Amino acid sequence: MLFNSLLFLIFFVIVTITYYLLPHKLRWIWLLAASSYFYMYFKPVYILIILFTIIVDYCAGILIEKAAGKTRRFYLVLSLVTNIGVLAFYKYFNFFGVNLNLLSGIFHGPQMPLLDFILPIGLSFHTFQAMSYTIEVYRGNQPAERHFGLYALYVMFYPQMVAGPIERPQHILPQLHRVNYFQSNTFITGLLFMAMGIFKKVVIADRLGLYVDPVFTNPHGHSALELLIATYFFAFQIYCDFSGYSDIAIGAALVLGIELMQNFNFPYLASNVSDFWKRWHISLSTWFRDYLYIPLGGSRVNFLKTGANLLIVFMISGLWHGANWKYLIWGLIHGLLLVAYQLLHKLNIRIKGFTFFKWFITFNLVCLAWVFFRAGTVADAFFILNKICRGNNLTYTAGSLMSVPELSYCAFIITALFLGERYVRKAKDCSNTGKLFLIGGLMLACYFLGIFNEAQFIYFQF
Prior knowledge:
By secondary structure, the chain is mainly alpha-helical. The chain has helices at 6-21, 24-40, 47-66, 70-106, 123-139, 148-156, 169-177, 184-217, 224-255, 273-279, 282-293, 303-321, 325-346, 355-374, 378-390, 404-427, 432-449. The protein folds into two domains: 6-179, no CATH class; 185-461, no CATH class. It is 71% helix and 0% strand. It is globular, with a radius of gyration of 23 Å. The mean pLDDT is 88.
């Protein structure tokens, strides 16, 4: 079920009204049932995968809390292996199979059979959220949850189970236990976040997609200028698409009185790559920081080890995004950029002043790295970058996709995003009347300017 569909609007209204009509003791049942329906709308049988991991992790949490020493570690490892095993099987089995077959083919060896199935939607997100629970119980930061239904709801809470934010148990589980009374200010603020998210998706992301998708589908048929425009447009398409989803998720949860973490903080205003990753997909970057980078030694070790840790984390982060070499290369690029940034600090080389220059370099490096993320193949990505860097064909002939006035309009709405998003964030502290006017304005803009083709959110595939 897509957030930008009429069906979701009906679902959201029914779920929210019923939630507040029910007594507290029945609300978790209603939300769990609604979340199950929300997920099963895509492919019903895959609910069994989530149920399996929920049972394993629920039992593991209790066993970890009761056990001591190596036994606690054994239960943690069992939980992690189960979750990673499910993720690896569905997401990476065919990826490794294809690559092994290519290698085997060189030596005329046997071919590994591949499986034909659809990747369970949001698998990477709810798997990481489930793993954070057992890790936090093992570390003593979260008591094991005895209420099976509430633990299942923690994993399956419908606003964020498909594409995040990836929450920690100590933040969400206490909120699921407490009684949430209807508060008009919180309710309207939630609607404001949802309106902003829908605006980002249908007015900006989906419109930019009308240009980006055809160009990246056929990069050989477009000039360097057209590829460069598509690269910049994709940077804003993926931001508005993903941060739009996060805003809708945060808003839908807030309407129910449940607060989710902020997932984006104006990432394209970052002055360096390290700053970018403190602002982009915050729930994932902090997950890798706390559960992989720091346990590997983080930055407490020597420079070479720190650099290796960064490369390991970002290559794994790349593969987390997709079972494809292009995602691994995208992650490797960011890892190398962070190593270079760390090296400049180690050598005490700092670029003082020139704030615009630092922002400009960071933004363009991030945009160029996005080419590997969006291109159909690694070969396409290298072709696009080569053509852009050579810049020997700066003509614009893609009039069949967008006319020059339409391109100017896209540039205008991107500029409006920069100016307007910060204002909307601050508007949560305004009066309810002011927020309602802003919600109305955003919805009118969506109605008259939006693209209503119910395009899937980009991060649904991860």
